[in-house]
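Usage

Read records sequentially. Each one opens with the input sequence:
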Amino acid sequence: MLAARGAGDESADRAAVAIDSTLPVTCLAWSDYVGGCTDGFAAKWHAEPGRGSRIWEGASSSSTTSSSSSSSGGSAALRESDTVMGETGYLSLGSWSGAAFVYKVKDTTEGVTAEHVQTVRENTTDELPILSTCFAASAWASDPGDLITAGCCESVKVYRPTESGYRLSTTYHQPDVVKSVKYAEEQNLVVSGSWDGTVRFYDRRVDRSIATLHVSKPCVDLDIVKNTAAFCSSRHVTLIDLEARQVGLTVAAHHRMTQQLRCAALLKDQSAFVAGAIDGRCCVVAFQAADAQSYTFKCHAAGNQSYPVNAVSVHPSQTVFATLGGDGEARLWNHVGRFSFTAPPLPAVPTAFSCGGFNAQGTLFAAVASYDFSKGWHPAETAPAPKLLVSRTPSEKWSDG
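and closes with the structure output:
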């Protein structure tokens, strides 16, 4: 049993934005890119001549006056013109309607804001659900990077930024539903996990598949940390070496996890994984000396009522991780001290939290309040409209205790 501890009296600044979707939202992903908006530096989007891609262009300005920027072309939705100190990040959402939504999130001295910049859809007839989305970008990138989506269309789609916004560039077809897709920055690979039990690797330099691994079990979730991918099936997590593109160690979930896993995430040092199940339980399992260092606990269950753990996300400090549940709760846990924080990263919502996670810097936490289909299709017709919530993280108040 985990004890509960407070994380401070002051709640972090938050933003809440209604999502223009009549159907539930299934997935959320942050871009690793971070745009600065500090005094003395003005940044702007502009189209690179002859290529249509976007690069950053900086210009100095007085430290006592606000910076200004202009665009030499391109979509105003993707233009940057911050005039106060802070950071700008981007995130994407995938919907059951087959559309992806791109948001710009600003964390400045004036507070946290989230602005919808584009709805991405190949065509109006493409209504197959998107189950996973990510960006192909790094913290040193000059823009949020290519947008990648995957799902029931049995393909991985790559959208690249153009003068008129994100446009479909490449489609990687697969024989079955793609449950999860991630970008491996160090290898410049797009990695997908499918219901047919395969992991496929796509080299972005040549825009084609270069390897396929057969893990045998259908993919439930996929996570990547540096050179390692974790393929989560209903009962096991399998490590994959991205450099050698080989299947490695397979570890079973904790023996007390009797129900199907729904989500999993690697610790940043790759020493263990965190997984959540459909019965409201969560486990932390070490890859070495698993019996001694592993444990399980209830995180989204009360009495005889349990709710699925829809997402887990590990903070860059790797001491803290968050869980999002079908009970509409977002909760923080310290896996070293094995206690929970009484102050949640986001307030409870009347529906479920279907997806969410920390940004790469660990400064912001985002989640989507949306129906999660845990009670079948019919409740989706009367469920509240999806909403995006973003909050600063009180990481300076976290301790091992």
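Summary fields computed downstream for this record:
- Residues 1-12, 37-84 have pLDDT under 50 and may be disordered.
- Residues 356 and 367 are 4 Å apart (CA to CA).
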